TrEMBL record:
Name recorded for this polypeptide: UDP-glucose 6-dehydrogenase
InterPro entries tied to this protein: 6-PGluconate_DH-like_C_sf, NAD(P)-bd_dom_sf, UDP-Glc/GDP-Man, UDP-Glc/GDP-Man_DH_C, UDP-Glc/GDP-Man_DH_C_sf, UDP-Glc/GDP-Man_DH_dimer, UDP-Glc/GDP-Man_DH_N, UDPglc_DH_bac
Protein's UniProt keywords contain Oxidoreductase: yes
Catalytic activity reported: UDP-alpha-D-glucose + 2 NAD(+) + H2O = UDP-alpha-D-glucuronate + 2 NADH + 3 H(+)
Domain UDP-glucose/GDP-mannose dehydrogenase C-terminal: residue ranges: 319-420
């Protein structure tokens, strides 16, 4: 089957490469000529473990190609995926669907055969209805079904998530759409991956509801962590204790500096705006979004406190280890590191930072931060070290070297990757999240 993937960013490129690896013929389409040129040269526009090798092998096999020509790219394609960005719109927080609708118009004007148009982008309820209207307005004589097929890819583990998914959600309103999507996902169906067929609107809502629920779990355990610090509990023990309950589960119960990334912040906001439009408020999600925003700057204040308070902190220097919102990605979108660095800057504290993959994207977002060549260069002369992202490279720091390089043995661990007793025995003034 020929598949066209319109949009060669994170979702489009990973999905396109994986579909090609299943044996489909895939064309990835993007308006950005420089991105397509780099892909032809084997240069990935994003960092995702294993993606470069997956793309290279399928390009070599002739199953994966790239183009800026949408009309040529969708020619003879049975399934045309829309995988363009839906960022939060300035002013009101709604998902910006202008790219989705622009693609729908161009597809409608360029179709040369019957096809299924699939919204892979994360879109609010009712978007598929508008895409269908746009396609009908184009006057295409060909049979077209509009299907919703949300993605559930974790950055840093996207290839495994695509090939071994918890579930595949397909929202289709007719048998033509369902039939084509069965063929698209036939390799996974043979591997017994569960496929859930729903209405299109239910499918669109599933993605937002899933992300809002996971964001709620993160925010819940972060607030429990704050309570643990007040009462002398250990949030990791609490998380294990409740996570062993099969009704709750242990995933997304890791206390930290708050969630960020490309999905949770914008998807919770988009869900709130949809609920507002339909006069059906989701108060829990409202609280989650607010608490998470406040938490990030609170983590900066936690570092200031470790420096001795606001008066003592002014003029001091902090080494920040980790900038991306999570490890194994270069994604800086809504990363807690941004708010932590801003809070420190406001307090008169200078920051030197190191991240294995995120520094180039971080530079324009954090102009006040000095980027270091490695962790120990950042630590040299620092009055405190703060771990913001749990990269493997930070899990086994040479603690004696850290003490020798830093002005003071102060370590603030916002990801709980070290044990308090061991760090204190090693001579550190150590603080973490939800542990005393």
């Amino acid at each position: 089957m020929k598949i066209a993937m319109v949009g060669s960013g994170y979702v489009g490129l990973v999905s396109g490469a994986c579909f090609a690896d299943f044996g489909h013929d895939v064309v990835c389409i993007d308006k950005d000529q420089s991105k397509i040129d780099r892909l032809h040269e084997g240069v990935m526009p994003i960092y995702e473990p294993g993606l470069d090798a997956l793309v290279a092998s399928n390009v070599k096999a002739g199953r994966l190609t790239f183009t800026t020509d949408l009309a040529e790219g969708i020619k003879d394609a049975s399934a045309i995926f829309i995988a363009v960005g839906t960022p939060s719109r300035r002013g009101d927080g709604h998902a910006d669907l202008s790219f989705v609708y622009a693609v729908a118009r161009e597809v409608g004007e360029s179709l040369s055969n019957d096809a299924v148009v699939v919204t892979k982008s994360t879109v609010p309820v009712g978007t598929g209805d508008e895409v269908e209207r746009i396609l009908k307005e184009s006057g295409t004589p060909h049979q077209v079904a509009v299907v919703s097929n949300p993605e559930f890819l974790r950055e840093g583990a996207a290839i495994g998530d695509f090939k071994r998914p918890d579930r595949i959600v397909i929202g289709a309103e007719d048998e033509f759409g369902r039939e084509v999507m069965r063929e698209v996902y036939r390799p996974l169906f043979l591997n017994e991956s569960p496929i859930l067929f729903t209405s299109r609107r239910s499918s669109e809502l599933i993605k937002y509801a899933a992300n809002a629920f996971l964001a709620t779990k993160i925010t819940f355990i972060n607030e429990i962590a704050d309570l643990c610090e007040k009462v002398g509990g250990n949030v990791q023990d609490v998380a294990r204790g409740i996570g062993l309950d099969g009704r709750i589960g242990g995933k997304f119960l890791h206390a930290g500096p708050g969630y960020g990334g490309s999905c949770f912040p914008k998807d919770t906001l988009a869900l709130l705006k949809t609920a507002e439009d339909y006069e059906s408020p989701v108060r829990i999600v409202e609280a989650v979004a607010k608490v998470n925003d406040l938490r990030k700057r609170a983590m900066g204040r936690k570092v200031v406190e470790a420096l001795g308070g606001a008066d003592a902190a002014r003029g001091k220097r902090v080494a920040m280890l980790g900038l991306t919102f999570k490890p194994n990605t270069d994604d800086m979108r809504d990363s807690p590191a941004i708010a932590v660095a801003q809070t420190l800057d406001d307090a008169g504290v200078s920051v030197a930072a190191y991240d294995p993959e995120g520094m180039e994207l971080a530079k324009p977002l954090m102009p006040e931060v000095e980027m270091a060549a490695d962790p120990y260069t950042a630590i040299e002369g620092a009055d405190a070290v703060v771990i913001v992202t749990e990269w493997d490279a930070f899990r086994a720091l040479d603690l004696e070297r850290v003490k020798a390089l830093a002005n003071a043995p102060v370590l603030v661990d916002l990801r709980n990757i070290y044990q308090p007793d061991a760090m204190r025995e090693a001579g550190f003034a150590y603080s973490s999240i939800g542990r005393v």
